[in-house]
Amino acid sequence: MKYLLYWLFFLIYFYSEGVYADDIVIGTSAAFRGPSRGLGIELYRGSMAYIQHINQEGGINGRKILMKAYNDGYNPVPAIENTIKLVEEDKVLLLFDYVGTPTVTRVLPLLKRYRNEFVYLFFPFTGAQPHRQPPYDEFVFNLRASYRQETEGLVDNFVKAGRKRIAIFYQVDAYGRSGWDGVKRALAKFGLKIVGEATYRRGAKYSEDFKQQVEILRKVNPDAIISVGAYAACAGFIRDARDAGWDVPIANVSFVGSENLLNLLLETGKATGRDYTVNLINSQVVPSYEETSLPAVKEYRELMDRYNPMPPKELMEEEYKPLRYSFVSFEGFLNAKLLVEILKRMGSKPERARIKEIVESIENLDIGINTPVSFGPHKHQGLDLIYYTTVRNGLFVPITDWPGREK
User: Fold this and answer.
1) Where do the domains of the chain lie, and which CATH numbers do they carry?
2) How far apart (Å, rounded) are the C-alpha atoms in residues 280 and 126?
3) Which parts of 219-365 fold into alpha helices (H)?
4) Contact in structure between 192 and 171 (CB atoms under 8 Å)
5) Rounded to an integer, what distance in angstroms lies between the CA atom of residue 236 and that of residue 169?
6) What is the pTM of this model?
7) Is 237 helix (H, G, I), strand (E, B) or coil?
8) Which bin fits 351, alpha (ψ -120 to 50), beta or left (φ > 0)?
């Protein structure tokens, strides 16, 4: 009887709160299938490149990090179901690397429900507001800047370049509306309003026709368009705008998945002989992975080449050609670097109840991008910088001059 009780105690201790005998278990729900699968796959790949490296080096205090991953296809209901499974069945230590506003916003009430179990979501791939403000901000820690910051920067730069008539193309859901709100707020600073808007439904494919949206916006004669969507639909919109002979500047926010979008446009350009990347601008929330002077970039490229990680095959329903490097996977890599630092600070016995205090104590942490990361009791976002890129010679590069001054 004594040995049975001892064994039960052993199981309870090691298999609660994501701390197994040999593993620290974290959980993610993301899009590994469907038109937006490139986002979930690349974010996962970037994180796993660093996690595999840490595991190979001996893990965290002798324990390896195990990522439990489930596909939600970028849809809210599966994301809710996956979260419940991760918390109640897998008993993960924390949630990590979720992808998208429509999924994250629906998961937030669950985090509040689990507040007595100290369940936190770390570094979701979304810049939306709901998890950055009460009542849910206390349950989420962000690394990336917000969509408000991205859209404000895009508007500011367009207006300074003389392009004041700004329209918006957006995904008709919580993500798109978050970006729409950011554009509206930014224009209001200058006494301006959105001159036109067109939408599309989440899950749209590149093969779909976006000519109607192009015509809706062309009629209002905007100086620039800000797109808030995923790569398949945004690339389709750009393709149809350029095929119509309309070269108006089009900007996308970071969530779009720059390389996936660019690859679609370049492939179509080879077939048609048209340059679909003219006046294309993307805002980013991490530095360029071409800036090899940055320690984190050098490490990222080395580990991505060494491990070339992929999600478990059962998560993906079709062939996917991974990107060697991308802004999305670099963000995932930085997410993992910060996560590992947090786990190290938790010591030999990680407990959910201690996570919040430990993260909020992080101040001026160097993660290798020449910008320190800080958190606090009222600061659950680590970075604020926005980077702006355009396409040159088939690559996204930093912008040196905004289109408009020649206008």
Assistant:
1) 2-144+292-376 (3.40.50.2300), 147-284+388-398 (3.40.50.2300)
2) 21
3) 231-243, 258-272, 295-307, 327-345, 352-360
4) no
5) 12
6) 0.93
7) helix
8) beta
The residue that leads in pLDDT, 65 or 318, is 65
pLDDT tens digits, 316-343? 877 899 999 999 999 999 999 999 999 9
146: part of which helix (H) or strand (E)?
A: none
Greatest CA separation for the chain: 84
**Mean pLDDT, to the nearest integer, of 44-67?**
97
Find the helix or strand (DSSP H, E) in which 94 lies. Answer: strand 94-96
Record the tokens describing residue 268, joined without a space. Answer: 């179509």
Chain segment 215-252, per-residue pLDDT in tens: 999 999 999 999 999 999 999 999 999 999 999 999 99
- Taking only Cα atoms into account, the Rg of the chain, rounded to an integer number of angstroms, comes to 22
Q: Which residue has the tokens 């499974």?
A: 85
Dump the DSSP string for 267-306. Answer: HHHHHH---TTTTEEEEESS--TT-TTSHHHHHHHHHHHH
